[in-house]
Design goal:
Layout: H1 14-24, E1 29-31, E2 37-39, E3 61-62, H2 66-75, E4 80-87, E5 90-96, E6 102-108
Parallel strand pairs: 3-6
Antiparallel strand pairs: 1-2, 4-5, 5-6
C-alpha cells in the first residue's frame, strides 16, 4: 500500500544542515531542484508511545554501535550535545547540527522492526 515514508526536519539554516547530512553523515541524496536535497535514509520503523502531554513527533538515527558512531563523529568534529543515557530498552545521545538544533542518536537494545 505504501512505498515509503518522508520525514521533514525544519531548520533555521537548512543549507548548512543539508551539507552536514550529505558530507558528514554521508547520506545518498537526490537534488529535487535548486539544491533542494532529499536524502535516502536507512531502513526505518515507527513506534507510537502514550502521552498525557501535547502530542509530538521525534526523529532518531538508529545505530548498532553508538560508541563507534560517536568516535566517528568526534573525528569529524561533531559536537555531542547530551551524555549517553542508558535504559533497559536502549542507549541515547544527540549531536549538534550546524543550525544549532540537535539530532538524536539511538542504539536500541530491544528487537527492531526495520528489517522485517
Amino acid at each position: 500500500m505504501f512505498s515509503g515514508a518522508h520525514m521533514i526536519l525544519y531548520s533555521q539554516d537548512a543549507d548548512a544542515d543539508r551539507a552536514f547530512i550529505k558530507d558528514v553523515l554521508g547520506f545518498d541524496h537526490v537534488d529535487a531542484g535548486h539544491g533542494w536535497l532529499i536524502f535516502k535514509l536507512p531502513p526505518a520503523e515507527v513506534a507510537v508511545h502514550p502521552t498525557d502531554d501535547e502530542p509530538k513527533h521525534e526523529f532518531y538515527l538508529m545505530c548498532d554501535d553508538l560508541d563507534a558512531v560517536l568516535a566517528t563523529m568526534a573525528e569529524r568534529g561533531v559536537e555531542v550535545t547530551r551524555p549517553v543515557t542508558e535504559a533497559r530498552w536502549g542507549r541515547l545521545t544527540a549531536v549538534r547540527l550546524p543550525s544549532g538544533s540537535e539530532l538524536p542518536l539511538y542504539q536500541p537494545l530491544h528487537p527492531v522492526a526495520h528489517s522485517l
